[in-house]
Each structure stands twice: as C-alpha cells, then as structure tokens.
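testing teh design pipeline on a random one, pls ignore if ur not involved
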C-alpha cells in the first residue's frame, strides 16, 4: 500500500490507548493513509509493565485493527522504536504484520531480538540473531561471489554459523533461509532494509537486495502463525485435526469406506510433519493454502494467522 507519513518529534505527548482490560501509555511515532482502504492509521509505541515496548499499527479513528510491528526488549534505547517505525513507514508493502493479541501483553512472552541502529557507512557485522537450534545469523562482508581472481570487491550477505553458539565458521545463506530458521520476518527484514540503505560505497548489496525483493513479493509465507492457531483450536477441544482437514476438502477413506480428514496433509502444511522424503519440518506454506485452512478450516480471517 502506498502511504503518506508524518512523524512527530521524539518528545511528542503520550496519550492513553485502551488495549484489553486496562489503559496503557502510548507514544505516537508516525501516521499514514492506506490508499487501498483510505484509512488513516498511526504507528505507536506501547510500554509493557515488564519494560519492553510494542510497536503497533492501529486504525486511527477507532484504535482498532492493531498490527504488531515489533516487540523491543527492555534494554533497548528509546531511539530503536523510531528506527523500527521509520523502516516500517518507508516500506510501501507494510510487510505481513500479524494482528495484536491479548497474549502480547502476557509478561511470560519474550521480546524479539533488537533491531540494529545505523551508526556508520555500513552495518557489517550486523546484530546477531539466534535460532532455536542456537545457530547464529548475521549480516557480514564476504568476498564478492563470482568475482575474477585478484578482485577484492566485497558484498553484504546473511551468514549462518555452522556450529550452534559459535560464529567462527559460517556459511552464506539467503534472507529466506534466515527468516525460515528464525520462523519470524522481523528483525531480519528490518536489518536487511537497514543494510541496503547504509551499504558502503565499494560494498555490493545487489544480491541482498534481490533476496529482499523476492521475499517481499513471494506467495510462500511462514506457517508459524497458522500452526499456533491450529494448536490453540485443538487445546480448546472444539475441533480435531481430522475435522479441520475435512473442512478444507481434504478427505480420505479407509478400507471400509469410512471418511475422515487427511490429517497428514494438514500437519505438513502447518509445519508439524516433514514433507515426504525430507527429515526437516517446513516453515513455509503457500498464501492460498494458508487462507484455505484459516478461513474454511478454522473459521477465522487469514490475516489473523499471517506473521
């Protein structure tokens, strides 16, 4: 969506915003108009009792339709909220932010890793990000791939450590690999945007830019939000995996002709079971399949399960 933005000064007056059962203090970071809906929207920072900060995009007139942009840890400087907001407002697509939920105000939830702030002509080495296996991901300067012998040009690439917890040996990976490993778009996407903005004069960002554009325009999206929604429904006991699959039109019959839902299909789509012939769970799903499972299988808006 194209936008028009205005950013207030860092000392802008805070105003109460009611989220859930109690009013919380918020600070306006900027506003824009979504041209597809013509809605006036506002980006705000919202302080949690544990000292962390939520960066949220709300519909301005009703303070509804909250979208979670980022969750900053308590030890991050206040300037990081403005950095995240500026990156978000500058992105016409606005990414795939998920809806704000009551769980976002649960003190047991942890903030996402901090976004790096621009401090020089380039950002390498970037803020390290650690996945669930302990592997470290960061943006680093590497020799330009395919350059002729003697060419000392370098490029910015995402890297992943070969050994969990250590960064002395790493491999170049794509931005999609990083997002898939972390099962989250942020802060890897914001760090990539920062690197593309502040890359050095003799430092190539061509490959990194291509990776960012492919990720932004891809119909293949993360399935973590969908998986969490399915698991929440199962915990409530209202639906089974079989019933959800049946609602999606995925039917199987046993030897006696009895009909049930194809649970293996659902488990693979939401990343609970590896694809055939693969040992690893797939963190991705096509956006149309996500919409099918959300809308027909769970009876919710697909937007609620997009990350």
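output:
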């Amino acid at each position: 969506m194209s936008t028009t933005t205005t950013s207030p000064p860092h000392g802008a007056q805070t105003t109460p915003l009611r989220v859930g059962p109690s009013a919380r203090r918020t600070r306006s970071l900027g506003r824009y108009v979504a041209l597809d809906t013509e809605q006036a929207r506002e980006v705000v920072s919202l302080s949690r009792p544990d000292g962390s900060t939520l960066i949220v995009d709300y519909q301005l007139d009703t303070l509804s339709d909250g979208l979670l942009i980022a969750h900053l840890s308590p030890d991050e400087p206040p300037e990081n909220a403005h950095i995240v907001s500026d990156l978000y407002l500058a992105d016409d697509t606005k990414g795939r932010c998920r809806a704000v939920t009551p769980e976002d105000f649960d003190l047991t939830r942890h903030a996402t890793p901090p976004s790096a702030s621009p401090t020089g002509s380039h950002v390498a080495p970037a803020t390290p990000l650690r996945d669930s296996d302990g592997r470290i991901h960061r943006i680093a300067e590497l020799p330009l791939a395919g350059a002729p012998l003697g060419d000392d040009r370098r490029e910015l690439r995402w890297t992943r450590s070969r050994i969990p917890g250590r960064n002395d040996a790493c491999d170049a990976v794509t931005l999609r690999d990083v997002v898939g490993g972390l099962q989250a778009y942020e802060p890897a996407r914001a760090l990539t945007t920062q690197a593309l903005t502040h890359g050095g004069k003799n430092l190539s960002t061509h490959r990194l830019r291509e990776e960012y554009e492919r990720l932004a325009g891809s119909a293949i999206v993360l399935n973590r939000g969908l998986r969490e929604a399915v698991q929440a429904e199962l915990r409530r006991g209202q639906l089974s995996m079989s019933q959800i699959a049946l609602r999606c039109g995925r039917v199987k019959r046993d030897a006696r002709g009895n009909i049930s839902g194809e649970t293996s299909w659902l488990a693979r789509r939401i990343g609970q079971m590896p694809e055939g012939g693969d040992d690893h769970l797939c963190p991705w799903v096509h956006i149309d399949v996500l919409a099918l499972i959300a809308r027909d299988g769970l009876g919710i808006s697909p937007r609620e399960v997009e990350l």
